[in-house]
Amino acid sequence: NVAHGLAWSFYTGYLKLVLPKLENSIEQYRQRQGNREILRHRHSWRLHILIPLSAFIPDKLEEADQCVRFHDNLPEIAIDRAGVRKRIYKNSVYRVLDQQGQAHHCVAEYATPLQTLYTMSQESSAGLSSEERRQQVLLFIRSLEAVLEESVECRNRYRLIILDDEHEQEAEPDPHFLSKK
Amino acid sequence: NVAHGLAWSFYTGYLKLVLPKLENSIEQYRQRQGNREILRHRHSWRLHILIPLSAFIPDKLEEADQCVRFHDNLPEIAIDRAGVRKRIYKNSVYRVLDQQGQAHHCVAEYATPLQTLYTMSQESSAGLSSEERRQQVLLFIRSLEAVLEESVECRNRYRLIILDDEHEQEAEPDPHFLSKK
Ligand SMILES: Nc1nc(=O)c2ncn([C@@H]3O[C@@H]4COP(=O)(O)O[C@H]5[C@@H](O)[C@H](n6cnc7c(N)ncnc76)O[C@@H]5COP(=O)(O)O[C@@H]3[C@@H]4O)c2[nH]1
After folding, report:
1. CA B122/CA B116 separation, integer angstroms
2. Do B24 and B158 meet the contact criterion of CB atoms below 8 Å apart?
3. Are A165 and A177 in contact (CB under 8 A)?
4. Could you report the per-residue pLDDT of A36-62, keeping only the tens digit for each?
5. Among residues of chain B, what percentage have pLDDT more than 90?
6. Local structure of A141: helix, strand or coil
7. Do B108 and A60 touch (CB under 8 A)?
8. Which residue numbers delimit the STING ligand-binding domain (chains A, B) (predicted)?
9. Per-residue H/E/C for A4-37
10. H/E run at residue B78
11. Is A66 on the interface with B (CB under 8 A)?
């Protein structure tokens, strides 16, 4: 149930707000850059949301995969939210080398709410064991998929990428998942 | 249980990160402003977190209370979070008129996670009724108080302000709660 609430929070407090504006942000970005090679194909204009089954979320994608490198940030979006005037939202563009050494670019980030699940499983006062955390990650995925599939605002603007990283093999699957976009 | 997760999320994903830096942000802000009258007393250098029992969260404080007006934003904080490079966090300063018409300033915002609870109670697919939402708000408060009281990082840097707004009387208690800081 914790995960169900975190999935809804991720959707209503974030994805529902930013995904409809993503196309616009990418267009602005490409105009500003002048480099038309980056994010050239519209089918890749999606937020790639990384969901590691371990719920372990590094703050930098480079820590999980050496084939992935931060490229640039998209233009910021400012929205008045719950008393914070002009709260800033932005997404990061990454350069990914595929197995042939070809560079691709994509907008990607981890599903931040999983960081809460991970922290809760580390703090005894939170009442979440490691076994329960695993179940909660699966529930998070199910709840998130369900709400996104019903969402007109988010249709075709995202891709959920599940990372089976529970066997210490993160460096392996990562280049594959990003280059298979 | 949804509320328990949202309280932990609010703490580990936000309050624990920004509250330790709040003093610094206010100092920087006061130096830049030159106006030493604003936020002059250190005892008011806390984030006032507004928690309406209805979970109804407007995006602007002015909508809830005409005695409250946005003054300015504090300097931004940028942190690499879960793949978003230099994610921006900031807080808003408000000018509040007390019952004698005196102006006071404070850093305030609503407890953003309650917006998720409210939205969930409006969407049938989320499985949260209005009665359950009320219970969840109370659970949110208890869980948040518990985790904040144990937190070294957040000690004395916040004030939870519970708003009993379930009888359509928001314009009344608001000036009181803010001017009684
Ligand atoms: N007032 C306020 N200002 C902030 O900058 C802020 N950032 C987070 N929060 C609240 O703290 C809690 C923990 O945040 P987390 O990042 O784990 O989840 C976030 C995160 O996964 C995603 N999200 C929200 N804003 C951003 C953002 N700018 N960039 C990336 N992800 C974001 O959507 C979730 C829900 O967000 P909110 O529903 O706005 O409330 C959050 C949440 O309750 C904030 N609250």
Report:
1. 10
2. no
3. no
4. 888 988 988 999 999 999 999 999 999
5. 76
6. helix
7. no
8. 1-181
9. HHHHHHHHHHHHHHHHHHHHHHHHHHHHHHCCCC
10. strand B77-81
11. no
